Amino acid sequence: MGKVLNLAGEPVRNATVEVWQANAHGRYTHPSDTNPAPLDPNFEGSAVLKTDSDGRYRFKTIKPAAYPAGPNLIRPAHIHMQVTGRQDRLVTQMYFAGDPYNATDPFLNSAGRKELLITKLLDPTSEFEPDSKIVGFDIVLYKG
Ligand SMILES: [Fe+2]
Relative to the CA of 133, which of 61, 113, 123, 127 has its CA 20 to 30 Å away? Predict the structure, then answer.
């Protein structure tokens, strides 16, 4: 969960947040994914959301697994996001602290401030399922 904000810190209302990710085995529900890891018939792996009047978005999912993306590359667990406001669009990926593949991932390490893309799993507050984790990930669109 998080907020979509502009550079002034103002909420971006009604922004579109598209999310897509691999399943818990590291496989996408997409015909071009050649990873032989199992599909999960109960997990679609993508969604299109809208931010609310405070710029907030929220979704419930499973933690994706790392997956092979070439002969010498294992992508760390990550969630893809494309965020579209009224003027700006951002395509990014959210990562998880402690993933052993973060250190060698060329995409994560190409980011100017990669620490902003790495999230921590936090214990849930009382409004969430007790065995769940929560993640905060705010997204800034330049003008919104
Ligand atoms: Fe991916």
Answer: 113
Distance 121 CA to ligand 1 centre (A): 19
Cα–Cα distance between 135 and 110 in angstroms, integer?
A: 23
Taking only the tens of pLDDT, the chain with its 144 residues reads: 999 999 999 999 999 999 999 999 999 999 999 999 999 999 999 999 999 999 999 999 999 999 999 999 999 999 999 999 999 999 999 999 999 999 999 999 999 999 999 999 999 999 999 999 999 999 999 999
Catalytic residues: 28, 67, 75, 78, 80
CB 119 within 8 A of CB 87: no
Ligand 1 mean position to 126 CA, how many Å? 31
Residue reference for tokens 């007790």 = 130
Measured between alpha carbons, how far is 76 from 109 in angstroms, rounded to an integer?
11
Q: How far is C-alpha 12 from the geometric centre of its chain's CA atoms?
A: 18
Of the candidates 54, 59, 60, which has an alpha carbon nearest to the alpha carbon of residue 15? 54
Tell me the pTM.
0.96
CA–centroid distance, 46 to ligand 1, in Å, is 12
